[in-house]
Amino acid sequence: MGVNNRLGLWILTALVVGNMVGSGIFMLPRSLAESSSPAGVMAAWAVTGFGVLMIALVFGNLAIRKPELSGGPQIYAKELFKEGSKASLLSGFMSSWGYWIGNFAGNVAVITTFASYLSTFFPILTSQAELFTAGTFTLKVGNALTFAVCSILLWGTHFIILKGLENAGKLNFAATATKVLGFFLFIVIGLLAFEKGNMLPFAAPRLDDTGHSISLFGQVNHAAVSTLWAFIGVESAVVFASRAKRKIDVKRATMLGLFISLAIYIGISTLVMGMLSPDALIKSDKPLIDAMENVLGPVGGKLIAGLGLVSLAGSTIGWVMLSSEVPYQAAKQGLFMPAFAKLNKNGLPVFSLIITNVLAQLFIFSTISNSISAAFEFIIYIATLSYLVPYFISSVFQLKLTITGETYSTNKSRMIDGVIAVIATLYSAWVIIAGTADVKTFTFGMILLASGILFYKLLPKPGSLPGYADEKRTA
């Protein structure tokens, strides 16, 4: 692999922060306010932050103890079974398939949020004027333009990445640095404009679809999947472990990125609740812009919108890089279709990049018939649940290592890592149960996951890996 594609600590950290602090920071305050009281939201952040910290420690430990298993948390699935067995191959493939779906679906959530914030400058993107009608379907001007903007951002990013991974990483770093500074400025302004009355009553009841009151625990339970979405991407450095300049940088970037992102999320989520009334927040498609406009007027809203566009453009680069890297790394280990292991002259997985973005384009079609906020909420639920299985598997694999003692020379580190693995496993299982309570979401997610079975026969047979795993380059 060329020097041009090696990633250092700060670029890896920027990938973690850039991918975590993407669409969630801009849209989640509204989603959370709708389902939970301020007390429920803050409790959900606390529980999720602790749970993800345990998962991040698992990722960091595995990156150091099992450096040969690079490419993302889904790779660990095959290690739970006998090497070379059908169970090992099937579990590795299905986990990779689900994780891949989560990645490109997550990318679409970032892209659709970009279009939402661009509408601040171009209101025509929200126009309800009818463009044409075919039967029961009516295409509106705003939806058509949103679809065009999303498609241009996706494929524009595609061609930027084809020019070289390190250059794309530097653009992502610049965008990440800009948004981190901007968000901390937002926090300072929010502290000055915070109104305690907007968060009262602090533990206000929420009602379900049948009109029954939801308890505080129920609110936290419901918000768990949404708050976890904010931390999706914490494993970004792990996915690029094979491209890191130093293996220790993978763990450092993961932890550093998590703490930076956690500070931004909790700070902004709490402050927005104090800057907007509950009703205004629930009705907002652009809560950060509305909060800043409420304080500084239209100029403030446009500043946040501009910051959002830079942030989301950078996140799109990071997510597209991540999405194409996942099946490439899986294919190198015999867990995905061999064609995904092909590299171009710049050492980039060109086939994986094309197929990933074609599938992301299909998800972008959801913007044609839905509002951006509706499309966002649907996509993040599917994406988050797709991620949870690999997270759960990673925690179980760490637990397996501590039980067998593999890679451990001292009982103290083995015991500490064992406790971390147990907590991470329980947390992942809890969010999976909470997220699959909705039958519609669970059914659609299972259909997407099960669709991988159609391609399972295309995998190479165990033992034939060397024939395609070499990093062959195509023109």
Notes on the protein architecture:
With 475 residues, the protein is mainly alpha-helical. The protein has one domain: Up-down Bundle (Amino acid/polyamine transporter I). Helix content is 69%, strand content 3%. The chain has 18 helices and four strands. It has helices at residues 9-20, 24-35, 38-65, 86-118, 141-162, 165-193, 216-229, 236-239, 248-275, 278-283, 287-296, 298-332, 350-364, 366-369, 372-404, 411-435, 439-450, 466-469; strands spanning 130-134, 137-140, 206-207, 213-214. The strands form two sheets. It has a two-stranded antiparallel sheet with strand order 1-2. A two-stranded antiparallel ribbon has the order 3-4. Residues 466-475 have low confidence and may be disordered.
Strand order of the largest sheet: 1-2
Q: Which fold name fills CATH's third level, the topology?
A: Amino acid/polyamine transporter I
Q: If you compute it from the alpha carbons, what radius of gyration comes out, rounded to the nearest whole angstrom? A: 22 Å
| CATH-defined superfamily | Amino acid/polyamine transporter I
Structural class by SSE content: mainly alpha
Counted up, domains total 1
The level-1 CATH class: Mainly Alpha
Strand content: under 5%
Low-confidence stretches: 466-475
For the sheet with most strands, the description reads: 2 strands, antiparallel
Order of helices and strands: HHHHEEHHEEHHHHHHHHHHHH
Instruction: Tell me the number of helical segments per DSSP (H or I, 4 or more residues long).
Output: 18
Overall helicity: 55-70%
Distance between the termini: 16 Å
Number of strands: 4
Subcellular location: Cell membrane
Main location: membrane
InterPro entries: AA/rel_permease1 (IPR002293), APC_superfamily (IPR050367)
Pfam families: AA_permease_2 (PF13520)
